Amino acid sequence: MTDTELIEATQNGHPQAFQMLVERYESRVASTIIGMLGDSPEADDIGQETFIRFYRNLGNFKGQAGVGTYITRIAINLSLNEIKRRKRRSMFSIFSTSDSDEDRPAFDIPDPNATADYDDTAELVHWALKQIEPKFRSVLVLRLLEGYSTKETADILDLPEGTILSRLARSQQKLKNILKPYLGAYHEPAIS
Amino acid sequence: MNQPYHDLLYRSLDGTLTDTEQAQLDLALQESAVLRAERDELIQMRGLVAHQSPPAFQAGFSHRVMQRMAADLQPNETDLFADVLSFMFRRIALAASIAAILLVAYNLASSDTISLAASFGIIEPTLEDLHDVSMMLASEGAL
């Protein structure tokens, strides 16, 4: 069934159709949200909230953008809101230290000298992404992690393509500098 | 590193270069070892990011969404009460705001001066109000 057919079926009172949509776009939403927030307990909640918002807005969905683009836009916006909420929470916390959730690595930072065969790149990449300012991070997640084109990234973030290109250049430079100690340990997978 | 070539390098990976720009970049890459190193690191970094295993939510995600949706979309009594309260509060707040504005306007209109105290209906005492002339004369006579 196509996305449009599933949306129509959902609107006609078939929740199973919506569950099929959730299953279809679950991995894309996970990639966006975990890319933005790291693999945190909130990520699952934000993922659920993304689909609930989508469901509530099915009536407004006109299909100009694809379902994937539309859901990704919701996921990015909710992730950015969550990052703001975390910052507020850490600012108002009496016992907060200088480390906010954003700054704190979700895992032990690997020693670049001991990572010749380091292959769990996901944690390393997510840690590195968290070091980057959210507005730049969102561009990296959409373009590099999810493989959206610069035009699609611009549509999702509702920004001009030129802004996306300049943010992409700056954020890639930052990410490269963060990951530089680990780049030597990484070997591109052989093409079979 | 020469900034224009640096920009061209980044744009070549995400945007489109004109034939002239591409030729300029190719020439710069041939001549500059620093630019070549930058390009290699950039490509390696992008490979590292792109080739990681895609993250996923824990198993049963779609069921959790459907359960939460069922719970969220089911109007319960608490939600209804909160909705009514919110609706009533908005109406009362609007009426109270209008009444406050009218009261301030009346106070200002019936006062000789325009001041914060006058807007609250507070009468500011004058010097004559504070000093009773007859009492002062009487006290002087007593002296």
Mean pLDDT, all residues of chain A: 82
Please mark out the parts of chain B with pLDDT under 50 across 5 or more consecutive residues, or reply none: none
Helix fraction of chain A, binned, reads 55-70%
In which range does the helix fraction of chain B lie?
over 70%
* Straight-line N-to-C gap of chain B: 97 Å
Strand content of chain A: under 5%
Which structural class do you get from the secondary structure elements of chain A?
mainly alpha
The number of distinct β-strands of chain A equals 0
The count of β-strands of chain B is 0
Largest interface: A-B, 44 and 31 residues
**Tally of individual helices of chain A:** 8
Q: What is the average of the pLDDT values of chain B?
A: 83
- What is the makeup of the main sheet of chain B? none
The main β sheet of chain A shows up as: none
Q: What proportion strand of chain B?
A: under 5%
Summarize the structure in words:
The complex is a heterodimer of chains A (192) and B (143). Chain A is mainly α. Helix content of chain A is 66%, strand content 0%. Chain A has 8 helices and no strands. The two termini of chain A are 32 Å apart. Residues 114-118 of chain A have low confidence and may be disordered. Chain B has 8 helices and no strands. In chain B, helix 1 (3-14) crosses helix 2 and helix 2 crosses helix 3. Chain B starts with a helix and ends with a helix. The mean pLDDT of chain B is 83. Chains A and B meet through helix 2, helix 3, helix 5, helix 6 and helix 8 of A and helix 1, helix 3 and helix 4 of B.
What descriptors fit this protein?
heterodimer; A: 192 residues; mainly alpha; B: mainly alpha; 2 domains
What's the quick description here?
The complex is a heterodimer of chains A (about 190) and B (about 140). By secondary structure, chain A is an all-alpha fold. Chain A has helices spanning about 5-10, 15-35, 40-55, 65-90, 120-130, 135-145, 150-155, 160-185.
